[in-house]
Amino acid sequence: MPLHPCLPDDLYTGTLVARIWNPQSPGGTAGPSVVVLRPDGIYALDAHVATMSGLLEAEKPAALVAGCAGQRVGSLEDVLANSHEPRRDPQQPFFLSPCDLQVIKAAGVTFAASMIERVIEEKAGGDASRAQAIRTQVLAQIGTDLRAIKPGSAQALQLKAALQAQGIWSQYLEVGIGKDAEVFTKAPVLSSVGTGSDVGIRSDSHWNNPEPEVVLAVNSRGVIQGAALGNDVNLRDIEGRSALLLGKAKDNNASCAIGPFIRLFDASFGLEQVRREVVQLQVRGEDGFVMDGINSMDQISRDPLELVEQVMGAHQYPDGFMLFMGTLFAPTQDRDQPGAGFTHHLGDTVSIRSPHLGGLVNRVQHSEAVAPWRFGLRALFANLAARGLLVPQAAEEMR
Q1: Which of 159, 203, 233, 351 is most enclosed, with most CB atoms within 10 A?
Q2: 175, 135, 136: which is closest to 156 by C-alpha?
Q3: Cα(360)–Cα(350) distance, rounded to whole angstroms?
Q4: In this structure, is residue 5 part of a structural domain?
Q5: CA distance 350 to 337
Q6: If DSSP codes are grouped into helix, strand and coil, which group holds residue 285?
Q7: In this structure, are 152 and 173 located in the same domain?
Q8: How confident is the model at residue 297 (pLDDT cuts 50, 70, 90)?
Q9: Residue 323: which of 309, 339, 336, 338 has the closest Cα?
Q10: How far is the C-alpha of 128 from the C-alpha of 203, rounded, in Å?
Q11: Cα 171 to Cα 108, 125, 240, 263, distances in angstroms
Q12: Pick from 48, 45, 50: which is nearest to 17 by CA?
């Protein structure tokens, strides 16, 4: 991994908080630590906060972090290099996903281009070889410029009636232009992986892709406290066979990557920057294949605040949630055969970058071959207890 690939364009101007596996943790027991990235190194905040969820419950988390001295655990270069899974030394610090107790949610079909691709998946029944012919037919009937249509509006209802009359209505169009967004749980608490780690695709999937997204960090009160980058790994063939297979297509071992940090909202970064963020994607294969993509947040059909409101709905999230907001990127570039579009090969390197949120890098492997996820909630709380970190966290959450 090259030097400092994870930093944003303005370097350390913002408040960049992350989680690492910390072998130097208090009490001599290794475990996860909330850290802040500073110009002279990475500093663990164990003496002030035990979980990222707890930090985001603070009224002004960026100000809280600014007032914490922390304990230096190493340089960004060393921790980042050790995060690269094939060369990782577990006795040295490495990056984890920056969230912990938060539920990992995702909103789908929030961009016109990706909405059309979901319709194509459905019409193709998950068969990539049929995609191009169906794409041509669907685009001829729907067109590509649906950005001006506000979901749930009178204009959207008129379009729905027109498409139904043409016989091409789809459940994906329902959530794309209807009043209710598609919101689902992407992954279990603590199961996401961080930068440098392998991401997983099922071995029985033959049509799949990365989804470069902005991920909101939201606390229990529904307040957006920051944002990160994410890769919502997607199995197109499985979901294309039936939308009821969404869980099987989306939630697999290591199929969710978030990182490298959460950039907290402060004077340098806020919701307006999120609304305008441009996320770049590059996939590099061991076969020499290269694919570039883009996700421009200014083309999203639902505002981030609306998406958070729809997630909250009639639900509560006492530990907060991370929210993938969907992607504009449509993986139509052919790789293996004409008309079949893109699919991953093992060993692909997926790089996702944006000006304010830095860079997230992961390698693609089969979910069945990636290291199994074993550090769940019981393991986390046992670890925090062994390190004497539970009481400070409880005090912080009661403020």
Answers
A1: 233
A2: 175
A3: 8
A4: no
A5: 21
A6: coil
A7: yes
A8: very high
A9: 309
A10: 16
A11: 12, 14, 12, 35
A12: 45
Residues 392, 396, 399, CA angle at the centre, nearest 5°?
145
The conformation of residue 327, written as its DSSP 8-state character, comes to -
In a domain, 299, yes or no: yes
Q: Provide the residue type at 175 as one letter.
A: V
Q: Dump the DSSP string for 55-109.
A: HHTSSSHHHHHHT---EEEE-HHHHHHHHSGGG--TTS-EE--S-SSSEEEEEES
DSSP-based three-state secondary structure for 255: coil
Q: Are 302 and 261 in contact (CB under 8 A)?
A: no
**How many whole angstroms separate alpha carbon 172 and alpha carbon 140?**
17
From CA 72, how far away is CA 390, in angstroms rounded?
Answer: 21
| Beta strand 256-264 pairing with 278-284 | unpaired
Six token digits for residue 100? 């912990």
> CA Rg, the chain, in Å?
21
137 and 219 in a single domain? The answer is no
Tokens of 269: 């970064």
Phi, psi (rounded to 5 degrees) for 393: -65, -45
Statement to judge: residues 236 and 380 lie in one domain? no
For 274, the token pair is 């999120």
Residues 187 and 237 both lie in one domain? yes
d(CA 209, CA 199): 11
Tens of pLDDT, residue by residue over 156-209, are 777 777 667 767 777 777 777 788 889 999 999 999 999 999 999 999 999 999
Whether residue 239 is found in the same domain as residue 336: yes
Domain extent, residue 387, equals 15-101+376-397
**DSSP 3-state of 370:** coil
Longest Cα–Cα distance of the chain, Å, equals 68
Q: Domains in the chain: how many in total?
A: 3
Assign 129 to helix, strand or coil: helix
106, β-bridge pairs: 184, 324
Q: Is the Cβ–Cβ distance between 20 and 79 less than 8 Å? A: yes
Q: What is the pLDDT of residues 46-64, one digit of tens each?
A: 999 999 999 999 999 999 9
pTM: 0.89
Same domain? For 231 and 348 the reply is: yes
Domain final residue, candidates 120, 153, 177 = 177
Task: Tell me whether residue 8 is in a domain.
Answer: no
